[in-house]
Design brief:
Elements lengths: L1 H4 L1 E11 L3 H12 L4 E5 L20 E2 L2 E2 L3 H12 L3 E2 L15 E2 L1 H14 L3 E4 L3 E7 L2 E9 L2 E12 L5 H5 L4 E2 L11 E4 L6 H13 L35 H25 L4 E5 L10 E2 L7 H6 L6 E4 L4 E4 L7 E4 L8 E3 L11 E3 L8 H7 L2 H21 L8 H10 L10
Parallel strand pairs: 1-2, 1-10, 2-7, 10-19
Antiparallel strand pairs: 3-4, 5-6, 8-9, 9-10, 11-14, 12-13, 15-18, 16-17
Helix pairs in contact: 2-10, 3-4, 3-10, 10-11
Length: 425
């Protein structure tokens, strides 16, 4: 009965699932190259972590004083900056990695992603998440989406999983890694109130609240009270432990995340009555969940050595940045040696054995430590453009995604403004 009610809605050359940083660039890349492209997004807004997730600070496009990621993602940043809706970092004066992010206005970033998608003739499907995949023999044929008219079927020729959690690939039977220990997520929020406070008094008040149990472990990952003033910026100040690939765990995380924000808000309001939360993200945003096993696998040593192989399609530049769940909520940082810029191999975007499925974003193939670095937004945008371009080539050459001409892929990416890593000799 259920299957008989699923109606075929349409068919596309490329279907991109997930409209975050990777999905947006993947869809625009494919559509600009002439593919009829659908972009499916479960929310009503593109941008993922940059917009819905409450982290409007894409990082990192620069390394060692120069651009290492351009293409569609950087075009978005430049167009925002030209319109006065983003602040680009000054590469001539490098600072700590969080300070080298682009600062964007989230609502206007979402609007411009809409505009760029429409300019490229991407067909957008908001509030229509994928609920099932159909296919056989490592080849997808269609996805089922949930709509206001019921379940609908979209047929496709190449599919790109940009869901972050690797949902599409996992449902299709791809192998993946998902450890018992995962990086904690964050529930982004913003406060009403001035940041011009006596930081010493705020730090003291924070430690008193900790001692009384009014603030709990994970509410503020600074923990020690020496820099409690950073809580006032909102953004990603808390840690919530959960498994983003498990719905029950996600539900518990949403409850825990809002309890955490409430504790912080009650304490701050008691400290100074003007402080109160005014914006909260719709979900706890995951840093890590599934990592799809691909034809290539990025190890932390690969990442730190920063040697580009012949299938390198884009750069990724960020230190190893693994958030932990220990009592101090520490972050394991390993910084790159000066001059080294890691790259992403195309094989890490190709789920092992699949013919017409690609992945892009934080769920690509690699170990936990490497993933803690390549998961950031600028890297995901570069991966997305590579995946969208690869989908076009697979269709043009009538071949499996793992059989495309890698030099042609690198050439088209460069032609379209992306920075392609130089292959190590």
């Amino acid at each position: 009965m259920l299957q008989s009610r699923i109606k075929r809605m349409d068919s596309f050359d490329v279907i991109v699932c997930g409209g975050g940083p990777a999905g947006f660039t993947a869809a625009v890349a494919a559509a600009r190259l002439g593919c009829r492209t659908a972009l499916l997004e479960r929310y009503g807004m593109l941008g993922g972590a940059m917009t819905v997730g409450g982290v409007p600070a894409p990082a990192l496009f620069h390394a060692w004083g120069k651009l290492v990621i351009k293409g569609i993602g950087w075009e978005l940043m430049e167009r925002l900056a030209e319109a006065g809706w983003a602040t680009l970092p000054d590469p001539s004066t490098p600072k700590r990695h969080p300070e080298m992010a682009v600062k964007v206005n989230a609502p206007m970033a979402a609007w411009l992603m809409d505009k760029m998608s429409q300019e490229a003739k991407v067909e957008l499907f908001f509030h229509q998440p994928v609920v099932e995949v159909l296919g056989r023999d490592k080849s997808l044929e269609a996805v089922v989406i949930s709509t206001k008219s019921g379940l609908q079927l979209l047929e496709g020729k190449v599919f790109i999983d940009c869901t972050g959690d690797g949902d599409i690939a996992a449902w299709a039977g791809a192998d993946y890694e998902l450890g018992a220990e995962l990086q904690p997520g964050t529930l982004g929020f913003y406060l009403k109130g001035s940041a011009d406070v006596d930081s010493e008094k705020l730090n003291k008040s924070y430690m008193e609240a900790r001692e009384k149990g009014l603030i709990l472990h994970g509410d503020f990952w600074g923990e020690n009270g020496r820099n409690a003033v950073t809580i006032l910026r909102g953004l990603n100040v808390n840690h919530v432990v959960f498994n983003g690939a498990d719905s029950r765990s996600r539900t518990k995380a949403e409850l825990a995340g809002r309890e955490s924000v409430a504790r912080i808000s009650h304490w701050l309001r008691d400290f100074e009555s003007e402080f109160q939360p005014i914006i909260i993200a719709p979900e706890v945003w995951a840093r890590e969940s599934r990592r799809i096993i691909g034809e290539a696998y990025i190890t932390v040593d690969d990442y730190l050595e920063a040697k580009a192989g012949p299938d390198a399609v884009c750069h990724s530049f960020y230190p190893i940045d693994q958030h932990t769940t220990d009592k101090k909520n520490t972050i394991k940082n390993i910084f790159l040696e000066e001059g080294k810029v890691p790259s992403i191999p195309y094989g890490a975007l190709v789920p092992k054995g699949f013919k017409n499925l690609l992945v892009a974003g934080r769920c690509i193939s690699g170990d936990r430590l490497a993933q803690s670095a390549f998961r950031v937004q600028a890297s995901c945008m570069a991966m997305g453009q590579a995946a969208g371009t690869a989908a076009y080539l697979a269709l043009t050459d009538n071949c499996a995604v793992g059989e495309i001409d890698l030099q042609q892929l690198r050439g088209v990416l460069a032609e379209k403004g992306a920075i392609v890593p130089e292959v190590a000799s």
